């Protein structure tokens, strides 16, 4: 908070007593802010690790106890983690064995197996022949489509080249002034030919500006007198 608005202890007086307390001597009053503060130091009390309490303690023994507690807790956590992983591994092994015991091998007859193999072989051969024929037909159709697309692309390129050539020839013909002669040699009219008030100031003589270093005889003063003082 500012103290600029507060009055002084010895306010200034007018006349020969300028300066406030300069004549009267120093003031006997003083502000509360000028009083000395924190004249005594704070001391530790009992239970706040005073010098006597620290001297009575065995710091080395306390450090060794803390270290032993730390390492014992760390080793305990490691042992618990190892036991947990071992139990999880045993549970997984047990579940695998249970699923293997549940699977029963299927008994298959030898004659049935031979018949199935022969029938499968015949059907596979027929399917292979059909697949080969279909593949040949598809390849032929694909080649035909590719050929048609290539011919169409060549035709479009030729057409584009012909159009570009024609456009270039037309541009060259238009750019030659000897070939492109104007239809008429008449002079074009100006934009101000049909203006009503045209060349109004042609016959007027324009008086040149002159400088006269006299406020009464210069041209401005004469025009002013002629306009307002007739």
List keywords for this structure.
mainly alpha, 230 residues, single chain, RNA binding
Question: Could you explain how this protein is built, in words?
Answer:
Keywords: Coiled coil, mRNA processing, mRNA splicing. It comes from Cuscuta campestris. One of its GO terms (biological process) is mRNA cis splicing, via spliceosome. It is a single chain. By secondary structure, the chain is mostly helical. It has a domain of 36 residues. Helix content is 55%, strand content 0%. It is built from four helices and no strands.
Major sheet description: none
Helix content: 40-55%
Tertiary shape: flat
The chain-level mean pLDDT equals: 75
Distance between the termini: 77 Å
Strand content: under 5%
Question: Which runs of at least 5 residues are low in confidence (pLDDT < 50)?
Answer: none
Report the strand count: 0
Assembly type of the shown chains? single chain
Class of secondary structure makeup: mainly alpha
Number of helices, where a helix is a run of at least 4 consecutive DSSP H or I residues? 4
Written as H for each helix and E for each strand, in order along the chain, the element string is HHHH
| Backbone CA Rg | 60 Å
């Amino acid at each position: 908070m500012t103290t600029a608005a507060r009055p002084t202890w010895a306010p200034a007086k007018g006349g020969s007593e300028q300066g406030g307390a300069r004549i009267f001597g120093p003031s006997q009053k003083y502000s509360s802010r000028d009083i000395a503060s924190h004249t005594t130091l704070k001391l530790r009390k009992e239970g706040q690790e005073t010098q006597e309490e620290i001297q009575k303690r065995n710091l080395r023994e306390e450090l060794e106890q803390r270290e032993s507690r730390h390492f014992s807790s760390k080793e305990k956590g490691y042992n618990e983690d190892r036991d947990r992983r071992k139990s999880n591994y045993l549970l997984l092994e047990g579940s695998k064995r249970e699923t293997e015991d549940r699977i029963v091998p299927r008994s298959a007859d030898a004659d049935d197996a031979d018949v199935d193999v022969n029938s499968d072989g015949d059907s596979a051969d027929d399917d292979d022949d059909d697949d080969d024929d279909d593949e040949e037909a598809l390849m032929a159709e694909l080649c035909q489509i590719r050929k048609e697309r290539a011919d169409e692309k060549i035709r479009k390129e030729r057409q584009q080249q012909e159009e570009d050539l024609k456009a270039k020839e037309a541009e060259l013909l238009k750019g030659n002034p000897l070939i492109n002669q104007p239809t008429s040699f008449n002079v074009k009219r100006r934009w101000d030919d049909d203006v009503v008030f045209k060349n109004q100031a042609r016959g007027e003589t324009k008086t040149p500006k002159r400088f006269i270093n006299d406020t009464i005889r210069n041209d401005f003063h004469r025009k002013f007198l002629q306009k307002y003082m007739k």
